[in-house]
Amino acid sequence: MEKLFIRGGRPLHGKVRVSGSKNAVLPIIAACLLPTSPCTLEDIPGLADVHTICLVLQHLGARVERKGTTLVIHPPEKPSTEAPYEFVRQMRASFLVMGPLLARAGLAAISLPGGCAIGSRPVDLHLKGLQMLGARIEHGYGSIRARAEKGGLRGNRIYLDFPSVGATENIIMAAVLARGQTLIENAAEEPEVVDLANFLCAMGAKIKGAGTKVIKITGVKELHGVTHTVIPDRIEAGTYLVAGAITGGNVLVENVIANHVKPVLAKLLEMGVTVYEENDGLRVIGQQEYTAVDVKTMPYPGFPTDMQPQMMALLTRARGTAIITETVFENRFMHVSELRRMGARIKTVGRNAVIQGPVHLSGAPVKATDLRAGAALVLAGLCAEGVTEVSNVHHIQRGYEHLMDKLRNLGAAIWA
Ligand SMILES: CC(=O)N[C@H]1[C@@H](OP(=O)(O)OP(=O)(O)OC[C@H]2O[C@@H](n3ccc(=O)[nH]c3=O)[C@H](O)[C@@H]2O)O[C@H](CO)[C@@H](O)[C@@H]1O
Ligand SMILES: C=C(OP(=O)(O)O)C(=O)O
Questions:
Q1: Which residues bind phosphoenolpyruvate (predicted)?
Q2: Residue 372 CB–ligand 1 contact under 6 Å
Q3: Is the ipTM of this complex over 0.95?
């Protein structure tokens, strides 16, 4: 499926269940290289990215069995240590095997991930952290080769210049088997980091402070396999909340941790969307009119950059002028020109986008340039007049399980 078609104008009604979190499951699968016995992972979404990281693990010698939404991962006794470009090119998160490989095998050679549509996305913070744990880093032929000193990695104090999610995760995974204690300061506080830490602790790791700015890890000798259920995807949940709001519908979003979507809820409420907690999830009731609000993306617990494009689509429907400031990625406004093709009035100045509303969007052929840009175009299509044709759907398939079926169940006219 490379194209999606949406006939807009139908308010969405009903229930939708959120799948397991993409950004939690990717590092957790990488962490399955660490124990000496198999792990069972539950509520694993059927996403292109999950498939890719499983291929990476298989390439490194792990045995991966999938049964429905369950994954069983048998770690290799002696992992191979190279993740070539063919994987890293498909998904930057492949770089997350660096920490576990260094911890388990003392050696890792991973292709350097390139930039992508939303920014240049260097890995300098990952490498600085691993260096502080005693790894020797060499660049060559487009790859990074990291080697632990004799006797393995050793704990240290690491200050991150920016609370990078991936760097925090890579360093935690490297430090759990290191000698002594590691302190990560200015660590990322995202729920996905906490889920990874909970998974590792269940395997026997000693980690304190995950979910705060300071994480303390005391290295242990060995980890054992466990069963773990990943947290619900807070970005998918936020996307369906916006879908309810943008179509003026009434939707119950199930399997969501309300605390994880607090920054999104706060903005929806400020705009005049009705959202409240029910026993089984969060109910969103759309209104005829919304008020423009300003949004600034920030590391957690700030407003998530992964919800910025979807929020922009919704803000085209709000009365007044809204300013979105993107502080996390330097180039995450690729959806603006596509939304403009649908009639949105948006200008960008550097890291700010100024949205003038309300406008009645109209269907148009548009292109998904990345995952969340694609989600924003689908949302815009749901409320636009006429048919919207979204191309490059493979980007959307990286992060939304059964998107078409879930939206159809809510009454959307969407087809491939
Ligand atoms: C698989 C996964 O979990 N992806 C999420 C993760 O990506 P990811 O882990 O790549 O995001 P980071 O938090 O690392 O990146 C945030 C910012 O830090 C910069 N940076 C990062 C690392 C580094 O070594 N040097 C550096 O300069 C990046 O270029 C970016 O501008 O967190 C992002 C920020 O919430 C989300 O948008 C992604 O959906
Ligand atoms: C940017 C995202 O993912 P990744 O880091 O995998 O590119 C995202 O999920 O919006």
A1: 22-23
A2: no
A3: yes
CB atoms within 10 A of CB 41: 23
Low-confidence ranges of the chain (pLDDT < 50): none
pTM: 0.98
Q: Which of 32, 54, 116, 383 is catalytic?
A: 116
Task: Determine the CATH number of domain 3-19+232-415.
Answer: 3.65.10.10
CATH class of this structure's domain 22-229 = alpha beta
Look at residue 33 in the predicted model and tell me its pLDDT: 98
Beta carbons within 8 Å of 317's beta carbon, 6+ residues apart: 246, 290, 357, 358, 359, 383
> How far, in Å, are 43, 79, 207, 216 from residue 151 at the CA level?
37, 18, 22, 21
3-state secondary structure of 268: helix
> Best of 25, 91, 124, 162 to mutate for ligand 1, by most ligand atoms within 8 A of CB?
162
32 labelled catalytic: no
Q: Which residue lies with its CA nearest to atom 9 of ligand 2?
A: 306
Of 91, 307, 394, 398, the one to substitute when testing ligand 2's pocket (max ligand atoms within 8 A of C-beta) is 398
